[in-house]
Amino acid sequence: AAAVVGSGVCAPGLLVGIPLAQQLVVTMVTPCDTVSRQRWTLGIRLNHGSVRSNVRQWTAIALAGVILAGISMPGLAADPPSSGSTLTPLYTPPTRLEPRARVGGALRGTDGADPEIQALVPDHVALTMSRTPTLNWFLSKTTLHPIRFTLVDNRSIKPLHEAPLPQPIRPGFHAIDLKALGLSLEPDVQYRWYVSVIRNPEAPSQDIVAGGIIERCEFTACLVEAGPELTCTPQNVVDNAHKGFWYDAMSCLCALIDAQPADASLRRMRAALLNQVGLHGVAEWDLRSLSVPVR
User: Fold this and answer.
1) What whole-number distance in Å separates Cα of residue 67 and Cα of residue 19?
2) Residue 223 confidence (pLDDT)
3) Potential cystine with 247: which of 128, 155, 227, 283 (Cβ 3.0-4.6 Å)?
């Protein structure tokens, strides 16, 4: 007896199952169009008394048929998506919004002598699940003026931390790692943070300031309510943005771009998030910089 597959099957190739019979027939059909359709049949005559002794032989031929036909076998990883594919993150703000949390205006241009800075945050209190998150900010051009970072617990007037930042050697996106500074956030407490360019130490009103507000979600509550993603991959950026964890999504995405600055898909993801929170000028700068790496 023979197992035969009809010519109407449409696939890159097809391997027929092997019945316990006297004859094995493997039939493949490639491709689908009627002009170039090809069909091969491999037959192996198996006697009833020698099925076990010939298992290796017909298995090897069957696998060869899979390779020839270009079939993807179950259980084997498929080819990774092309580098040109882009995930699209969609930020979902928390239900309880406190507007005007972002300090600093829209990016107005970089033709003046002084730089412009932006905190990469939405204009409301944004969430993190981390005790020691990373805060990201943007600098339009390098400067000789000192730059200062300030962190303020909203329960106190005195800053929790205030100190100079290392002088950036290039414009673009920068990060403040609270863990490296020995700082940690308490859950359910709002903290204001600022990056300031000190143009005149004797006149604080002349400082160029940008900042935002961050609140740490207590981990157990976050885990139960939202199920945050604790690793850093492009998919986890999308998931955390959708669940409302802005700081975790943005810091992960910036870290991925730091590791792969020429990856256009990651840049488009960041630009999408920035546009969603009104930072259009920074998003445009990011996409333009793809032709001239700046990170």
Assistant:
1) 21
2) 67
3) 128
